[in-house]
Amino acid sequence: MGLSVSDGIWRRFVREGTLDAGRLRTSISESWLRCRRLGVNPLDGKGREPLAADLLFSQREAQRQFLEVALPHLKALYESLAGQGLLVLLTDTNGLVLFMVGDASAMERAMNIQFVEGVRWTEEFVGTNAIGTALAVGQPLMVAGEEHFAVASHTWSCAAAPIHDSDGAVLGVVDVSGSLGLASAALLAQVVVTAISIENAWRAGEQKELLSWVMMADTALKEQTHSAVVDSKGRLVGLTRDLQKIDGEGLLQPIEEFLSQRGLTIIASHGVESSFVGHSAGKQVTLAPKAKQGPQVPVELSTFPGAVGVSAAFVQTWLDVRRVAGTEVPVLLQGETGVGKEVFARALHANSPRHSGPFVAVNCGAIPEHLLSSELFGYVEGAFTGARRGGAKGRLEQADGGTLFLDEVESMSSEMQVALLRALQERVIMPLGAGKPIMTDFRLVAATHKGLEYLVEQGKFRQDLYYRLHVYPVVIPPLRDRKEDMQGLVDFYCRQQNWPVRLPEEVIQVLMEYNWPGNVRELYGVLDYLRVRSQGATPRQEYLPPWLVAKYRSNTPGIQATGNLGTLIPVQTNSSLRVHPLENSGTYFIPKTAVSPELGLFLPEPPGNLSFLERVQYSAMVVALYKCGGRVTDAAQMIQVARSTFYRRMHRFGLRGKMETKR
């Protein structure tokens, strides 16, 4: 096929980071960049330790239905290719190799690089490869020779195609791998045809399963009233006659939509099973009208530490929270560390129809990666060495009927992102080592202190999961942009700590002058210090932390921010570098990599109605273009975005020609 790149192109990229994009396919060059950011070792690329036999068995059991559908097609594909030194294999949606069959010579070569059943063959683990890159881009592709990011696969060619269900979700990948000389368009076509055949068989099975659910529901509901049956995907498949309307209106829609449209709520439920599925994966629910209520009274702000405020910035955020609280819409809370994201998440829960259910909070960044899966999804007894007797419920199951709050969601690995996406799509979770899925129903509130859109563009966060989370974003302002709230926050702290004092004006003045990079959390830490230091006496300025007093007295501005989109640093308005304000707060930012003390740069006024992220992108592009003399390729590389993306943004922002310097 002429797909393989020269060894020199690969070596230059590995040694210097220089990418000869004109001689590489876009899918390969973008994958190399992802691998470099992920820290993949290009001089290795062997598979990691495969799963233990019992864990691999559990994973196969969880994918039994998928394997039963796919195996006949995989075996037929292998029979058509046998004797050519090839492997045929199937992975799950996380790139875990579930099944492999092949010629003895190919199997021996695969063993040498740990390419075996039970390993994850994704970009994160082994670099650019057909399986992992097909999962990353969602398209079939061939990867040959030095197109692989890591040397372990440089003598291989691989063709892979994703397999999708009827909703478009990825079920897994079918792959054929062999020696470099076997790469061809015909081989890729065979893989694609096999993937389509598996998809068709899977979808036919889904239709049979759906028919089975409908028939079961009709039988189960004959003697019932005010009841419904929900299948394993959370779809309404049966209603009692008192709830039916003409033409089967409401059937096959998500149960949440049906309840919202009819003004109903679930008052009881129990698991049911269909003859096709053979396990308890659905629910029969009893419904009742929602109790009529007057206008919802929002939770008092003072009941939430850190949410006190009268400033325009705070009030706007609180109005956003009030608007969305009474819905089932997913919310993404965005704000710097310490602004009180969990406080707002609890307010959303307390004002929601699920307020009587559990509020389950998980800090994804505080849990080691190897424990996060069992923490979120739970496990059964014996699932792994050291597993608790009787197993443990995962946080997603614990949140059933309530709200799940995922803080620092950006820290999830790509594998965990896929698993969470699947749980959100299907409302079904599979505990580690379990053979039966569990339905769960929760309202999701996620939080981040980084720009998820930026991480998506960098290949560090899945775009499909981003769209699931970024439904109703709420931006929580930093404390420096709501200093009118300082006195209220201090008063609240004093009430909470039973500290009956009124801070003198001299103390309040110091607090007002500081810019609080740690936000409300840092403020309350300073107040803790002040309370202990004053020992019951009237707090005075000298009782504040010495570094804070010194900073105030020297009139040195505090650190302005730890930016949401990488490290951002402040530029004072009297600086030689003039940049456009990102917000009406009077704070000016540019990317740290673009700062030059000698540079006097005038940024042209950007188009109106830009979002915060777009203003950051705009400023970064203008500075990069200036520093690179207007050369788009160099400017795009400086801020680490694809050239096509850079051109697209230039068109959107109206950027043309060289930047004007202020003399």
Protein architecture, described:
With 663 residues, this protein is of the alpha+beta class. The protein is 39% helix and 15% strand. Strands 2-1-5-4-3 form a 5-stranded antiparallel sheet, sandwiched between helices. It starts with 6 loop residues before the first helix and ends in a 10-residue tail after the last helix.
H/I helix tally: 23
What kind of oligomer do you see?
Answer: single chain
Low-pLDDT parts are 292-306, 556-603, 657-663
Overall 3D shape: globular
Radius of gyration, taken over Cα atoms and rounded to an integer in Å: 29 Å
What percent of residues are in strands?
A: 15-25%
Report the end-to-end length measured between terminal Cα atoms.
56 Å
Indicate the percent of residues in helices.
25-40%
Q: Main sheet: which strands, in order across?
A: 2-1-5-4-3
Provide the residue-averaged pLDDT. Answer: 79
Total strand segments? 20
Structural class: alpha+beta
Largest sheet: 5 strands, antiparallel
